[in-house]
User: What shape does this take?
Amino acid sequence: MKTILRLSFLWLCLPLSAGLAADGLVWNSRDDFWASAGIVETMSPGDWILHNENLAVRLSSNTGLPQAMWLRGEAVDWFVDGVLHPFNPGSIQCSQILYRQVPQKNQAWLDAILNSVDWPGVRIHCRSTLQDGWKGLWTVMQFENKSGEEQILSVTTPGDKTQTICGITVTEENRFAFAKGALAYTWLDRDGCMIPEGPIHLAPGESFRCGLFLALGHSPAEAFGIAASLQMECGYVAGRLIATDMQPVTSAHCIVHAEEGNLIAYPNAHGGIEFMLPIGTYDMDIVDLGRAACWDTAVVWPGDTYYFETVMDPPSSLRLHLCDAQGQAIPCRLRFAGIGETPDPDFSLFYPNCPTPSGWESRGGEEQIRLSPGSYRLTVIPLAERYDIPPVEIQVTVEKEAIVDVNPWIDR
Assistant: This one.
């Protein structure tokens, strides 16, 4: 009789409002406690935290598996909170957890011995390691068949909300009001690990060892570059985004076009951008709401840095007065369509919850929307049936803010 064992690595995004403070810890950049790799046990709920100067990883006291990762930012502790479930969480039985710091190697690790009620006879040894200088977690899992029957393991990684570029899988980013971040992961054939490809057949007494590196970055491009540098030759792309008044542009996005998909990078508080890419040539679009788009072509050589500086025009905007004759706000949906050579705006890149890429939800009243210069056809769709507002054509320029009052058009 053969037992089929299916393992899936899944990331589940769970927002935390207070970063590391949620575990009763304070991450102080002036505190030498965080300067070297180590491990501490939290007061509540009794989990462990691996940390170095770049990031911290919370490990579950129930399974010993990574639950959440935080990356230090410039102004705040940027973080992505996720849960790694290689199994059905309810089926896990943790029989032993060991943790250790190795000051001579500047690393810390936690070992967990796991068993699953779904797969009796399979012993699972999981080790999570963090070392000084790393911007990711190295997780090695060894599966040993101690039963008297052949076991078939199917080790998979998540397919939802991810994209794979050059063999590196990048998760859909988490975006919060004060932080942005993304994860990337890759299988590595080091430390005796093999890359899982298809079903793994284990005879009684046989074992299989695989390792996954989980990289955390401020953006999908940064996380991808960290993971890619472990597998192939890479170089750096570094740049600065500034406005015509020489002030940094911090709201723009740098979109890198790779053969297998696009990667997004964000500027820091000084308008600076830096990330790694495999050697090659990449077209880049620099976009920001209300500004004319810019572009560049990065030529990446191993160990070298391609530097660019982009000067962006001042932003233009549209001000709407969405009220009736009595001054009552009119909640509505707004749709923008470019006229002629003006492309449709894409708000989804900056506001993931917008109803459509070129749509906007408004509560009514005074509404200001940053919109790139050009000609647009604006359709106002009131949520109340008593209003009927015909479409209108508008012209948006940098020199003067466009102002639209819908009240004269309302057909009652």
User: Anything to note?
Assistant: The chain is about 0% helix and 50% strand. The longest strand covers residues 92-102. The helical segments are 220-228.
